[in-house]
Amino acid sequence: MRASDGKFYVVKFQNNPFHPRVLANEFLATRLGIWLRLPMPWSEVIEVSGWLIAHTPDLRVEIEERRIPCASGLQLASRYLADLPEVEVFDDLPHSAFKSVANKQDWLQMLPFDKWVGNADSRQALFARTAKQRLFQVVFLDQGDCFNAGQWNFPDPPFMGTYHRDQVYRDVTGWNSFEPTLSRIEKLDYVDLWRFVAEIPQEWYQYDSDALCQLVEALHRRRSLVRGLITEFRHSHCKPFPNWIAGRRSGTATRS
After folding, report:
1. Residue 54 and residue 107 in contact, taking contact as beta carbons nearer than 8 Å
2. Cβ of 129: how many Cβ atoms within 10 Å?
3. How far apart are CA 127 and CA 92, in angstroms?
4. C-alpha 241: how far from its chain's center?
5. Is the pLDDT reported for residue 213 higher than 90?
6. Where are the alpha helices (DSSP H) in 118-251?
7. Residue among 3, 86, 96, 113 nearest 49 (CA)
């Protein structure tokens, strides 16, 4: 959808088929990710009027073989990556093309983030470049399944939140590979968390302030769990970090 600022956005509505909290998840996780300097499309709160929905037949949600009008009011809008005609966007690349990704190190920065926020989906990514560019920029999107979607809990299986191609993790040599994101997560305080949480429209979490407070408490507590969650993934059967150097440490790392 094109918004009043003239830019295009992908809009998620409160009455999506999954859960209203998906909007809160997308907003909060994106705000946290961008604060951590991770490449994500910017998200905003957008107001969609009932008049626009009534006069736009395509603004319908399919739920159990029924097509119902999208909800009016405050919705979640994420910047559309292919906003400009000269931008090419791909949802995957051939194995041989990964060497043409300019910001490959950002894959390693995303892993602590996804473990921290309990991304219940595999890590979603797009690859963008202009027609004049040779290299791609990877951009990480779709944060709706963070905090385990509408459940707001953290089951934490080893592969949760990881990318489907193990090759993106081959440059990991130790805890230094996840810096500075890992240390920034571990040092995050309540003030930073609540600064982002306060911007979430109350209807996106169904006015359940107790559940929101519990989510913030869990995120604050999980800062100290991220290294252990990465270690579980490291020791999983796929052995995602073949170049890990035993004994290499950084910052507050306590494991090798």
Report:
1. no
2. 18
3. 7
4. 22
5. yes
6. 181-186, 190-197, 209-222, 226-234
7. 3
How many CA atoms lie within 13 Å of 234's alpha carbon, on the beta-carbon side?
23
**Cα–Cα distance measured from residue 8 to residue 204, given in angstroms and rounded to the nearest whole number:** 22
What kind and span of H or E run contains 117?
helix 105-117
- Cα separation, 54 vs 52, in Å, equals 5
The 8-class DSSP code of residue 119 comes to -
Residue among 235, 231, 247 nearest 182 (CA)? 231
* Helix H or strand E segment including 32: helix 21-35
Q: Is the dihedral of CA 188, 190, 191, 195 positive or negative?
A: positive
- State how far the Cα of 41 lies from the Cα of 12, in Å rounded to an integer: 14
Name the amino acid, one letter, at 232: E
Q: Are 45 and 12 in contact (CB under 8 A)?
A: no
> Hey, what are 200's tokens?
């979430």
pLDDT in tens, 46-73: 999 999 999 999 999 988 888 999 999 9
Tally of CB atoms within 10 A around 149: 18
Q: What is the bridge-based pairing of β-strands 73-79 and 43-48?
A: antiparallel
Residues 106 and 137: their CA atoms lie apart, in Å, by 10
Task: Compute the distance between CA of residue 107 and CA of residue 164 in angstroms, rounded to an integer.
Answer: 12
Check whether the bond before 85 is cis (ω within 30° of 0): no
State pTM to two decimals: 0.92
Quickly tell me which residue has 């473990």 as its tokens.
115
Q: pLDDT tens across 142-192, in order? A: 999 999 999 999 999 999 999 999 999 999 999 999 999 999 999 999 999
